[in-house]
Amino acid sequence: MSRSTEELIAALAADITPVRRLMPPMLRAGIWLGLFSVLAALAVLVFADLNIFTERMGHWRVAAETAATFLTGVAAVVAAFHLSLPDRPRAWALLPLPPAIVWLGLSGLGCWQAWLERGPGGLGAGQSLRCFLLIVGFSVPIGGALLWSLAKARPLQPVSTAAVGGLGAAALCAFLLQFFHPFEVTASDLAYHLAAVGLVIGSASAAGRRALA
Amino acid sequence: MGGAGADQETAWRRLMRAAQDGESAAYVTLLRQIAPFIRSLARRRFRDEDAVEDVVQETLLSLHRVRQSYDPARPFTPWLAAIASRRIVDALRRKARLAQNETSDESAYETFADPLSNKDVEAGETAQLVAALVESLPRAQKEALELVKLKELSLAEASAASGQTVGGLKVSVHRAIKTLRAKLGLAE
Hey, are the CB atoms on B35 and A9 less than 8 Å from each other? Predict the structure, then answer.
């Protein structure tokens, strides 16, 4: 064995301290999502108009889109906790893909229907900027809390772990937005939603390089 | 896995569990035992022994950093192999990047016929380069290097000044020098 490797082993052994083993990733994701659900439920109960929300959920497409958004968030959070460990398959990153495709597909369908019903007016801006700011604004504390939890594993691939975590945070925020979004999604809204999700994923990836490394 | 392999796996799992509990002797035994295994993985991709040893050391450092993520209920060898494989990929990328950016121009190194004529200019340039590289190190490594190697404080003094443990300082200094050597293209 080379001298420097032997020296390194001695240095590492001198540095050893007892560590608290991480819980299994599914359990960690469950706890994180449980805490998120409690806080989100409180926010919804205090601030959202549940009557309008219930009325909107009566429409199959809006209900399915909301469910797909939520599932994308849950799947991405579960995937991120698995990706944060060295020996879990990278294929976990694909878990959020199916619900994300349904989510975007149904959002697109909503835009198309709005265009058919209202003509070019259906493509215009609803409250796009407000949605953008809500998604990005919610994502800061939610994404921050998620990165903090993921950092406990010190992921070997911090950027991809943070990117998937960012998708989870953004999707959960887009889901929360449904409670504060009493109108149909227009094409412009969709573009703003996508831009917000992209911004959150990009920021999480950039932050992940430092925060998780 | 065969009998010997299964015995080894059981032994490594037990040693890693003890290492997670802070048992230094078990940790040294484990690291010494796994080093040849990591070396054999690295040799499949690198012929150069320095590169192989770099991978071994990077893997040991990574294992140390993520040791809380090992679940004793799961096999140890795949966990270790995944860390080593990550470090091998990083080393291959580094090598490819270096090969891409390096061009060989023998005449560029010589501005005057007498090598001593270039000494002062080169020393200044090297100092600037090293200073820039030190600046680019992670905070803990930079601090450890400055206190232990540049200000030449004892490990105990440096520990008191920085709040890092003595072992942590040794690791940080080791990593810092290794990074600087790699960036300057120097062998071990």
Answer: yes
